[in-house]
Amino acid sequence: MSRPVTPVHRLTVLYDADCPLCVHLRAWLLRQRQLVPLDLVPAASQEAVRRFPGLDHASTLKEITVIGDRGQVYRATSAWIVCLWALAEHRPKAHWLATPAGQPFARATVLAAARWREAIKGAGPACEDGHCGVPGAPG
With a cut of 50, which residues of the chain have pLDDT below it? Predict the structure, then answer.
């Protein structure tokens, strides 16, 4: 018996606006052609809490979290894969990363990014006073 499929028509990406890597990836996502529209919202912000009152917002600051328009919640590696899946040029790679062959690569990439993020967050000249500005909306 197959499981019912819940289509995704829009995704909200919660990202750490105080993280230089996260802010960079936000800007990168916004430059890509999207097959599924992405709303990028700072994690634990008033907007995030308003949109998703039942979510553990403290945890969204620790790992990327993506929420589908039907309530699907993706975290960490699955969140990165679904972000790539939403992009026209990266959907085939997302399909591969979701396979048993691709999952170890996806996990290793997310873990490396998390280690790098923790090493640089708030340390160094990239962010004055430990906080990075969020780039303005495109357009």
Answer: 125-139
